[in-house]
Design goal:
This protein has 316 residues and is of the alpha+beta class. Helix content is 40%, strand content 21%. A 4-stranded mixed β-sheet has the order 2-11-8-5, with no helix packed on it. Strands 6-4-9-10 form a 4-stranded antiparallel β-sheet. The protein has a 3-stranded antiparallel β-sheet with strand order 1-3-7. A hairpin with a 4-residue loop joins strand 12 and strand 13.
């Protein structure tokens, strides 16, 4: 009996010790900013009803926090130092995955992290994530949900104390999808490009090598889009025929070239081949007249072995 009591006491002691250690670890990793109150993030979609294939964003926002703490906010979308990779899902009415998952060729460092400095973070901010960067919205009409299933967000206070939320999740956000009419989605992209170029011209504050903050959301939605309806507008955005110069640095446009590779038509490639034949491009200098992404695109197109494509992109 005494032996049994001794074993029971030891088991209880081990259980208590394990629970105590678990609590200590839990407190250590608990994502709490120094004032004891984590920043309140809210989630929403830029639109709750769209045409099939239409681009939208999932928006993460936070309000005025100046009364509680001074801090900056960092959103990590991809990092070699983080085990968390951003994941965003499109789900059908039965909560099963829908839409074609996108596998981007590369996530440039200029898009891996978005940092909101102290001034902007205190007054509130918003990160608008293009859904097309992760999954296509080209799905049959019906009821769907968009869910952010992983995103790392860090908060740094005025004393440089840092707290990190390794996996930030959102509740499923409802999305109604209706059948798109002829040219409807293409017209939406054209309008977004016009809006984005106007906003860039009016509010450009200087280049800081952060694609999330260097360019308006409308340009993200065009150049990071997936699907055939985006291709023509993406090519329109890439190159200025009047100045014979490319409009953006290569890191910002990598996703557009991947989309053109997947969905571009012969006529689309013909337009790009004409750009590559221009004197400015043929100089081969690292300037606005040359784009290494276009060279990559032609190399990938050659692998397809399409004779009609080869006549367009191979030197004569």
């Amino acid at each position: 009996m005494d032996t049994m009591n001794g074993k029971s006491i030891r088991r209880t002691a081990v259980a208590v010790l394990g629970f105590t250690l678990w609590c200590a670890v839990a407190r250590t990793v608990e994502p709490v900013v120094p004032d004891g109150s984590p920043p309140l993030f809210t989630y929403s979609l830029s639109k709750s009803s769209i045409a099939s294939g239409e681009p939208i964003t999932l928006d993460i926002s936070w309000g005025d926090r100046e009364s509680e703490i001074n801090y900056s906010v960092t959103c990590t979308f991809m990092s070699r130092y983080s085990s968390c990779a951003t994941s965003l899902e499109l789900l059908d009415s039965s909560m099963k995955p829908a839409g074609v998952r996108r596998h981007v060729v590369v996530m440039p460092s200029s898009q891996a992290i978005c940092i909101f400095p102290r001034k902007e973070s205190i007054s509130g901010g918003v990160v608008r994530i293009p859904v097309h960067l992760f999954v296509s919205t080209d799905v049959p009409e019906g009821a769907y949900y968009v869910r952010l299933s992983a995103l790392e967000i860090g908060v740094v206070d005025k004393k440089s104390n840092q707290r990190t939320w390794p996996v930030l999740r959102s509740a499923p956000l409802p999305l109604e999808v209706h059948k798109s009419g002829p040219g409807e989605v293409a017209a939406i992209y054209a309008a977004l490009l016009k809006k984005g170029l106007a906003e860039r011209k009016e509010h450009y504050r200087g280049w800081i090598c952060d694609d999330w903050r260097d360019y308006p959301t409308a340009l993200h939605m065009v150049l990071w889009a997936s699907g055939p309806s985006a291709v023509k507008t993406q090519i329109d955005a890439l190159y200025d025929n009047d100045t014979h110069r490319f409009c953006f640095w290569t890191r910002f446009t990598v996703h557009a070239y991947q989309n053109i590779l997947e969905y571009g038509t012969i006529e689309d490639i013909r337009r790009l081949a004409a750009i590559a034949d221009s004197p400015e491009f043929l100089q081969g200098t690292d300037s606005n007249g040359y784009d290494s992404n276009l060279v990559w695109l032609f190399q990938e197109l050659k692998k397809k072995g399409n004779p009609e494509l080869l006549t367009l992109i191979e030197p004569t």
